[in-house]
Every structure is written in C-alpha cells, then in structure tokens.
Design goal:
This protein is of the alpha+beta class. Helices cover 38% and strands 16% of the residues. It is flat.
Length: 195
Amino acid sequence: LQQTRPGIWRCPHCTRDIDHGQLANHLSSQKHQRYIAWAAEQRQWQDKLQRGEVPDWLEVRADGSAYCTLCYAHATPEHLGSMRHQLREQRSAEWPGESAPATSTPQAVNSALPSAWGDPRLYERKPMEGTFWCKACWKYADENHVVTERHQSRSAWFIQELDADLSSAHQPPPAEVNAQVQPRTGPPPPPPPPP
C-alpha cells in the first residue's frame, strides 16, 4: 500500500484509494484477496514462461494471464483441472499437429467425410471438436443426424440453393433485360404532390 495523501491509501492490486478508517476492512475483503491471488498467479505464469515451462497449448498474454488454446478458455486452476481440458490435453499429445477431437468415434478420428453422408458441400470439418458441422441444419453431424427426415429435407433444399447460386453466378443477364434498361436522359421526374 502507498499513502497518496493524508488518511488515504492506494491499493496497487485493486487500483483504488481507501480511507484509513476502511483500510482493515479492505485488506480482509474477498475482492482484495482475489486480486492478490490473481497477481500471484500472473507472476507464476510469467516465471514459468521465462523458464520455458509453459506447454505449447498455453498462451501467456501481455497482461500476464494464461489462455488455453485447446479449449479457447482462460487457463484458471479450475479450467486446467476440468475433465474437458484434461481430455483435450491428452488427445493433443496423442495427435500432434492436429487439434484433438472431442469424441473417439471412428468417424471423428477419420478426417474423411463418410461417403454415405452425401454431398460434401453440406459439411464443414471442425478439427477442434473432431467432427463435422452440417451447414444445412446448423448442427454437428454424425451418423444419427444424417439419416433424420429434417436433415434430408434441409439438405435437399440447401443443395438446390447451392446449385442455383452456382449456375446463375457466372451468367450475364438475359438480352431482353439489357434491352429494357434505358439510360436516363434529362432531369429526374418531379416528386409526387403531398397528400
């Protein structure tokens, strides 16, 4: 703590001024304790970074906070101890060079789209999750999803729209449309009278 003026102290962790009469309450408050713990954690991450003890999937940001690039979450002790993170960390070690899939089904491990699923334009590969995303239904796709009536209906419409967009994207307008468009000559017409 630093005294800024008589009777007023500045807390460097909480970045606020505290009256001398409230100083004891502030120092014992949960908020102040959280800020102290956070600052200590930041110092630990910076020290680990300097010693080269930070794993590849961990990013130490400019403010000193740690960020998990496996889970796209702040690397708090709670996060690092979570089942989700531990599974992703394990799978990243098993499959270096590619983000770990979230499930271990054969379709998730295999990066090729199963041919029974139909047109590959319907799907987008999601390597972090180890699965595919159905663009027609806006859902994760698996062998159960692709056989549903809703998926069949939406995928037929989606493919029809894709084909229509592709066929009309590179064609000039018909000649009769070009003939009907006349360049304007002279001043614009006057506005209609008010009602």
